[in-house]
Amino acid sequence: MNIESILTAIKTQAANVAPFGAKLKFVISDQIILIDGSGDQNIVSQNDEEAACTISTDADTFMQLKNGELNPMMAVMSGKIKIKGDMGLAMKLQSLVQ
């Protein structure tokens, strides 16, 4: 799956969940996906802005998470996912990566 299809999937999910009151940034194989949940709705873009939480991984790991093939906590513990910033915000992500 390429970054465009990942972006489309995140946009679809983000439209269906309540804004979480902050900006969250994914860095997936050096590509940026920013979810701005600080307003009335979640806005997804590829802008490289400051975020309360940044999650870095590769596209394969992201797809394994999305498909339920990889436990998020195990991915963090094994270093497949790196999280910087608000860990509480990172925990809210499950609704976006389903």
Number of helices: 4
The CATH topology: Nonspecific Lipid-transfer Protein, Chain A
Order of the strands making up the biggest sheet: 3-2-1-4-5
Strand content: 15-25%
How would the global form be characterised?
globular
Mean pLDDT: 90
CATH class: Alpha Beta
Number of strands: 5
Return the domain count: 1
Largest sheet: 5 strands, mixed
Instruction: Specify the helix fraction band.
Output: 25-40%
Known CATH architecture = 2-Layer Sandwich
CATH superfamily: SCP2 sterol-binding domain
From the N-terminal CA to the C-terminal CA, the straight-line distance is: 15 Å
Radius of gyration: 12 Å
Uncertain stretches: none
Structural class: alpha+beta
N-to-C order of helices and strands: HEEEEHHEH
Overview of the molecule:
The protein is α+β, with helices and mostly antiparallel strands. The protein has one domain (3-92): Nonspecific Lipid-transfer Protein, Chain A (2-Layer Sandwich). The protein is 33% helix and 24% strand. The chain contains 4 helices and 5 strands. It has helices at residues 3-15, 59-66, 72-77, 87-91; strands at residues 23-28, 31-36, 43-45, 53-57, 82-85. The protein has a 5-stranded mixed beta sheet. Strand 1 and strand 2 (31-36) form a beta hairpin. The longest helix has 13 residues, at 3-15. The chain is globular. The chain starts with a helix and ends in a 7-residue tail after the last helix.
